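$ run holo --ligand "coproporphyrinogen I" --emit tokens
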Amino acid sequence: MIKEKLLLSALNGNVNTIPPVWLMRQAGRYLPEYRATRARAGDFLSLCYNPELAAEVSLQPIKRFQFDGAIIFADILLIPQALGADLKFVEGEGPRLSTISMQKDLDNLKPIDEIDSTLSPVYETVKILKSKLPDNVALIGFAGAPWTVATYMIAGRGTVDQAPAHNLLKNNKLVFESLMEKITEATIHYLKKQIEAGAEVIKIFDSWAGSLGPNDFVNYSIKPINKIISSLKKMYPKIPIIVFPRGANQFYKGFAKKTGAQSVAIDQSISLSFMKALQAETCVQGNLDPTLMVNGGKELLDATKNIRDKMAEGPHIFNLGHGITPDANPKNVELMLKAIRG
Ligand code: 1CP
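-- output --
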């Protein structure tokens, strides 16, 4: 009999003696082998669009750490690029994109049926990964949530407070909402294609959900995510979906049910008692402070065991509260894994 993959088991609501574990941004700059492959590709975007090399970097943390999930190597900003935004990554600074501020900018975006001319290498990456992954590892596809993607498309870069997006919403709601609609449709298509190519789990990153007030949170985080999930579920009723509404604070409560997600990823600002309460609603994932992966030691061990033990009675996926940082020490990942798996 083939045993169910541990990650899928947790997403189906099962309690496991040892929780499945993977890390947000597990393929990335903290790994020397990633830096080597990226250098071979030339730059970050060339790596994203090179299926053989992208699959290779997704597999690197699996080989090194035997994680229970592999995430495809891509970026949430590939959708804006596929829609026609000019995108580049400036070394040491981050992404730069052409901006959206008026109807004319929207009119210049490509129709949804043209985005695959940019995105098809990502589907190829998924296929390669599917054929190469060990049997016990689940393949995770992903996209950014419409609000988070819109914040980059409107500002043209990452911002601390997402002010440009909030201003567009306030001053030109029609353009803002049309953009959200467009991203939502593109994302449904993109994720559908990832599932067709072999993704077994989908993660939606709403990394900037925390800057939305109560009404905007409903309208621009929950509703578009719900639309994406319900559209995918019509085609693939069983596909498990994890959503990360980073910074959602008290709005984490009820979030899984309202969006239709099977799991919520919890950032490190949430207390373990609140996380435990959320576990009564859904499979919980995350919460370990990523800064602990830099210095490691007893602090890392204690925090790891504390999360594992407090979440042991319900469905749980071990993960960080946000992405692992470039200055993290791979040895500390091993330390953490030992504490989880014994
Ligand atoms: O220099 C490099 O090699 C680029 C660093 C890097 C990497 C490794 C970027 C630039 N993106 C990625 C890959 C990536 N991004 C993955 C797949 C790899 C993995 O997880 O193992 C994923 C899932 C993402 C998701 C992503 N990209 C998010 C959501 C998650 C989060 O961290 O909140 C966001 C917000 C982005 C945008 C982005 N891409 C890269 C950077 C530096 C940023 C942040 C920009 C900013 O706001 O400053």
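-- notes --
The pocket of coproporphyrinogen I is lined by residues 24-29, 38, 44, 71, 73, 75-77, 89, 94-95, 142, 158, 205, 207, 323 (CB under 6 Å).
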